[in-house]
Here is the input.
Amino acid sequence: MSMLDNVRRLREEIDIAAKQSGRTGADISLVAATKTQSAEAVREAIAAGVDACGENRVQELVEKAAAGAYAGVPTHFIGHLQKNKVRKVVGEVSLIQSVDSIELLRAIDRVAAERKIVQDVLIQVNIGDDANKFGIHAKELEPLLGQIEPMPNIQVRGLMTIPPLLSDLDETRGLFAEMYQVYVDISRKSYHNIRMDILSMGMSGDFRDAILEGANMIRVGSTIFGDRIYS
Here is the structure.
């Protein structure tokens, strides 16, 4: 199948899941996870109709941006971001999805202030308390958000999570449901520079369950591009 066919079929599946959760496919943002993909493949995905491109690696982000690969859609950073690479990302992407510490937030705020911008971010939550995943624990979220208010160059737009890889899909869906409740609880509170309107969860293998449990943004790679080829 062509990439256009892949995206069309994916949109149909998104719409089905969204309708089952009382929404429509238009309520779900489709982020193409472009790790290891060529600039040409990224352009093809954009032409096929994805809403944004999400890059995991800073070096790939820099190289593909220089090649004009992301033209036409917003770019997100979705991988683990080290503090020493913040300058290469802040202001270069519309959304940093993977913020997981107060130290990283301070670094982002500092660079954003230098560049006179406000950087949109998501806080990554380790909803399954998986030692192999990045992200803060859910119980640490509110204390962290309380420390963000004095950072005028950061706008928290919501939360992101990557659940553990589980064989029991019902258990994975339960974690998505738990994450949605965390998102709703935080949304009800008032913070100066925090606006909860994005819940990013779900990838190629579990995006349907993520949408059913409340995700409004999914990050999909292999369903669009096929299996990754690592050099």
Observations:
- The mean pLDDT is 94.
- Residues 144 and 180 are 18 Å apart (CA to CA).
